[in-house]
Amino acid sequence: MSGDVLSQNEIDALLSAISTGEMSAEDMKKQESIRKVKVYDFKRALRFSKDQIRSLTRIHENFARLLTTYFSAQLRTYTQINVASVDQIPFEEFIRSIPNMTLINIFEVPPLDGNILMEVNPNIAYSMLDRLMGGVGTSPSKVDNLTEIETKIMTNLFERSFDNLREAWSGIIDIDPYLTEVEVNPQFLQMISPNETVVVISFNIVIGESSGMINICIPHSVLEPIVPNLSVRYWMQSNKKDPTIEQSAMLEKRLKSASLTVVGELGQGQMTVEDFLYLQIGDVISLDTKIDEPLVVKVGDKPKFTAQPGHSKNRMAVQIIEPMTGGDEDDE
């Protein structure tokens, strides 16, 4: 049988033909044995494999989590963002799919060449703007051009969000995104050929009581230099490398030269606040440690050794007797 999946309409048509006698089961088997030709649309050339699309999905799922935290802090309201879909389509189809009046952030991502688009649904864009201006986050019914002040406010908001994009992509490549232009009419965009394949990552976003979509459009020409890095083999391999002998020696040297606070504790005692207030020079404080008992030596604030007091070269000193058992219990 052919590996193609039949649509519901095709299934209904086959069942109807068999039930009415127009086609017998034998005829259907003969048609199934005939090799079918699959139509290929060169305008919708698939430039990315499923494996690479999954990698892009993971990257932007992380980006969505980072954006959720960022927008929640900036807008001071409940925000939820998640990846809705990741598709590869012609650039012309993407332009036709977005509203005539919308907020489009155009930014570059050095060292990669080319531009990336971030299209923000007007309902969400104006809700963000209302929150930033001190409102409750409502969106006007009619979307018009942004004023210079509104454009500057929105530009600052999205420019700071690019730090999250940099972090999300850090496992693949170190990019330095920066905003180059803000546009509200997609018909003015002439960045690439209409038939160029682009990856469109769509996010569902909820801000307070408003909801909408954010789309990121990445042309294939931008990602082409790092397409091999989007494979599972590259994604799964650890970025950490075993240290060299020289690095291990340097680490050991630095550890040996690290300073530690070592305290020999003579003992402890208790007194009332009243006695403490009347302490004077020459008063004696009784400790709970007997004179013939070993002292406790602490490294940092952890008891590690027992020792006996003494002196060395006219200075007070302690001599280690043995390590203390159970000294690491506080670390658990």
UniProtKB/TrEMBL annotation:
Cellular compartments annotated: Bacterial flagellum basal body; Cell membrane
Keyword terms of this UniProt record: Bacterial flagellum, Cell membrane, Cell projection, Chemotaxis, Cilium, Flagellar rotation, Flagellum, Membrane
Membrane-spanning ranges: none
Membrane topology: Peripheral membrane protein
InterPro entries found in the cross-reference section: CheC-like_sf, Flag_FliM, FliN-like_C, SpoA-like_sf
Entry keyword Membrane: yes
Domain Flagellar motor switch protein FliN-like C-terminal: from-to ranges: 254-323
Molecular-function GO term, any one: cytoskeletal motor activity
GO BP term, example: bacterial-type flagellum-dependent swarming motility
Pfam families cross-referenced by the UniProt entry: FliM (PF02154), FliMN_C (PF01052)
This protein's record includes keyword Calcium: no
GO cellular component terms given for this protein: bacterial-type flagellum basal body; plasma membrane
Assigned protein family: Belongs to the FliM family.
UniProt name for this protein: Flagellar motor switch protein FliM
Source organism (scientific name): Sporosarcina limicola
